[in-house]
Design brief:
Elements lengths: L5 H4 L16 E6 L14 E11 L10 E3 L1 E3 L4 H11 L6 E7 L5 H21 L2 E5 L10 E6 L7 E6 L6 H4 L51 H7 L2 H4 L2
Length: 239
């Protein structure tokens, strides 16, 4: 039987103090149809299969809805304003996650899904804009949701700032904002309560590009990390 050296035993919290393990969230981003652009080409509504891994504080992903209806905030300079706002936030005050394209059982469909995700991330980055994913598509929406912005290093990742029980900052959505999209009800904001013992945050590379979950944050989802958690569920989104 293997036993940890005595000087390492203090690093493992007793069972009553350990954070319950949870599966990474897997679901859909629904992007609205776009109007014809300068070249007269309209884009139909799209669905992108995504998965998320926590990188800072507790995201309460077990309570997230299965799909988010994204809204792009196309105001010029808003991504730069988000970076400036993040620079003023004290470390550890935000719940943060990384979102990635999910791997599907059909290789061709999975590649198309990855391309759609990267197209969204590229649009956000090149236009200097952000997206929001309210908890509910109902109008008015419960307060909060996920603020999404691109990284400077990869189009296969989006950073998410999770607003569990609070509204998005007014400089992003404006005063008195509510979700204009009609759709199925989402999360019950009354369920979103802070855990007593959130897991320790992962130190980011920078305020804007937190460390990808490889697999330091995702390893808490079980042995083998995020890939193992994905493997048992690939059939759900296949085809």
């Amino acid at each position: 039987m293997f036993r940890l050296p005595t000087h390492l035993e203090s690093l493992i919290p007793p069972p009553r103090d350990q954070v319950p393990q949870s599966q990474p969230w897997r679901g859909l981003f629904v992007l609205p149809a776009s109007s014809p652009g300068p070249h007269g080409v309209a884009r139909p509504a799209r669905e992108i299969h995504v998965t998320a891994a926590e990188t800072e504080n507790d995201n309460q992903q077990e309570l997230w809805p299965e799909r988010f209806h994204l809204q792009l905030i196309r105001r010029s300079g808003v991504l730069r304003e988000v970076h400036g706002w993040l620079a003023q936030v004290q470390p550890g005050q935000l719940s943060r996650c990384m979102l990635m394209p999910d791997r599907l059982s059909d290789a061709a469909v999975s590649q198309q899904n990855k391309a759609a995700f990267e197209s969204l991330a590229r649009e956000l980055f090149e236009q200097g804009i952000v997206a929001i994913a309210p908890w509910s598509a109902n109008s008015p929406s419960p307060p909060g949701g996920i603020l999404l912005y691109p990284t400077a290093t990869s189009r296969a990742l989006l950073v998410g700032i999770v607003f569990l029980n609070t509204n998005f900052p007014e400089f992003i959505v404006g005063p008195g904002w509510h979700s204009p999209t009609a759709g199925p009800s989402g999360i019950n904001p009354g369920q979103l309560l802070p855990r007593l013992q959130p897991f320790q945050p992962v130190t980011p590379h920078s305020l804007y590009d937190p460390a990808p979950p490889n697999i330091s944050s995702a390893s808490r989802y079980g042995q083998g990390g995020l890939e193992a958690a994905r493997g048992g569920k690939q059939g759900r989104h296949g085809g």
